[in-house]
Each structure stands twice: as C-alpha cells, then as structure tokens.
Design goal:
Elements lengths: L2 E11 L1 H4 L6 H7 L12 E6 L7 E5 L7 H9 L1 E9 L15 E3 L2 E9 L2 H10 L3 H4 L7 H11 L6 H18 L6 E8 L4 E7 L8 E3 L2 H7 L4 H6 L4 E4 L10 E3 L4 E6 L2 E6 L6
Antiparallel strand pairs: 1-4, 1-10, 2-3, 2-4, 5-6, 6-7, 7-8, 8-12, 9-10, 9-11, 12-13
Protein name: Gamma-glutamyl-hercynylcysteine sulfoxide hydrolase
Organism: Paraburkholderia caffeinitolerans
GO molecular function, one term: hydrolase activity
Length: 277
C-alpha cells in the first residue's frame, strides 16, 4: 500500500524526519517493514504549512522518493512547524501526479494508506455523493481522493472526526449494497494547518499500521544531547505508518478504531465509530 507521516511542533527542516532518521520515510520507500508491500515507489508528495492560516505548500512527483534529487533540496531548505509526507504504492489507479498524496483543498490536506475494496465497482456512486460545488476540484482517479472529498462534503472543515465517521459509514453502506465486505481499510490524516486529525480504522478490524510518539519531553530527558529532539521542542508530535527507529520507548501503536486530534500541546484520543450521514 503506502506509508505516510505527519509532524507538528517547532519548525524543523523537513529532512530531519524524511531523510535523517534511521528508518526514515525515504528508507521506508525501499524497505518498508510493516507495509503490505516492501517497496513504495509509485510517486510521493509532501505538503507543509509556514503559517497556520495559509494555504499549504506542496510538492508531488511520480518519481520514487529515494530517487528524486529535488526532494532532497526542498527537504534541506524548508523549515516548517507542521507537515505531512506520503509515499505511494498504487493499487487500482495509474501512476500520475494527480494521484499522488497529499490531496489539497484550500487549507486542508489529506493522506491515506489502505484501500476501498473493489473501488471501480462503487466509484461512480461514491463520486455522485460529492457536493457539486466541490466536485470540479477532483483531479485524479484514486479512492483516497474520493474519500477526501466525501469527508469535505460531510463537514470536514467544520468538525473533522464526525465528518470522517460519516464518510466511512457512507462507504461501508455503499459497498454493502454491492455485496462488497469488508468495505475499506485505512489510516488517514487530515490537516488545516492548526490541527492534525488522524484515524486508524478498517471494516474488518485489521487496519494498516500506525504509530505515534509517546512524549518529546520524555525524549529530551533520555537524549538531552540529540540536536534533532532539542529542535523539535517538548510539545512536538509525530504520527507515522511505522516507527522511524528501533527505540521502543519512543513509539506507541495507535489502537484499532481510534481517532487522534492534535492541537499544539493538546492531544485527544477518541473512539472512531462510523455512522451513516
């Protein structure tokens, strides 16, 4: 499938987590340990916010992440307090830039790992449910982008977690009408520059992997001389498809059917329960 990460904290160079960690996202593009595929080379993308209320910047490419020299330059130059990155392993849809994550609509970005089962069979019905005013913004052909615009239709900009619950409920109900069960598997992350909203969920309760950092304050105590940890600050927070290193005290697995909302130093964990919109 895919791998992704999301960061919020003090402004740090993108390369700190994209390249410098032992099992960085770039390393995962070639040597994923927990993904459905070892190699994730069907394009990549990174989006970042310089200021919370700005439209995010974005760089996407169909090149494998490990082989894109421009990504290395951007990751070295850009310092950001919040960013999302994604490496893609394509399923139903072609390798093209418009199918690379993160997807963006105004201030919001969205990444997804997983799939809607038998997406070609339900694609038309799902897309018809997208609010007409937003439909023209859809550029690609992935199930991930369809999920994003369904979530926007169901209120992502107003109340993100309930909107994602409605999106999943609608996908599951639509799939069931077509005899498709289980319907979907997903870890997703959405952001508007002020918050990260992530969900780990699957219809079969066997979701793709997702981890979060335990406490950067604790990391400061354990590794006071590590400049990367010092730069991130005590309130930094990372969500990752798989850990960026081997230290067990740094990472905790996100439980099944869980939503996480991160706003600055506040982190909220709640049960994720799909509902029909």
């Amino acid at each position: 499938m895919c791998r992704w990460l999301a960061y919020t904290g003090n402004a740090v160079p993108l390369e700190t987590v994209l390249f410098h960690a032992r099992h960085s996202l770039i390393d995962q593009s070639l040597h994923s340990k927990l993904g459905a595929t070892t190699t994730n080379g069907d394009g990549f993308g990174v989006g970042w916010y310089q200021h919370p209320h700005d439209i995010p910047y974005r760089y996407r490419s169909v090149q494998p992440a490990w082989n894109d020299r421009n990504l290395r330059e951007i990751a070295r130059a850009v310092h950001a307090p919040m960013f999302i990155a994604h490496i893609r392993a394509a399923t139903h849809t072609p390798v093209q830039e418009t199918n690379c994550h993160p997807f963006r609509h105004r201030r919001w970005m969205f990444v997804h790992n997983g799939l809607i089962q038998s997406f070609p069979l339900v694609r038309r019905e799902l897309l018809v449910a997208v609010e007409p005013a937003r439909f023209s913004a859809i550029e690609g052909s992935t199930d991930s982008e369809a999920m994003f615009y369904l979530a926007m239709t169901f209120g992502l900009e107003v109340d993100p977690v309930p909107a994602l619950e409605r999106m999943v409920g609608f996908v599951e109900a639509t799939a069931k009408k077509h005899g498709i069960e289980p319907a979907l598997n997903m870890t997703v992350c959405a952001s508007d520059g002020e918050q990260l909203v992530a969900v780990r969920y699957s219809s079969e309760r066997k979701s793709r992997s997702l981890f979060h950092t335990t406490s950067f304050k604790h990391l400061h105590e354990l590794y006071p001389d590590d400049p990367r940890i010092v730069a991130a600050g005590e309130d930094a927070y990372l969500l990752v498809s798989e850990p960026l290193g081997d230290l067990p005290e740094v990472w905790a697995e996100v439980p099944e059917s869980t939503a996480i909302v991160v706003r600055g130093a506040q982190v909220e964990y709640r049960d994720f329960v799909p509902v029909m919109p």
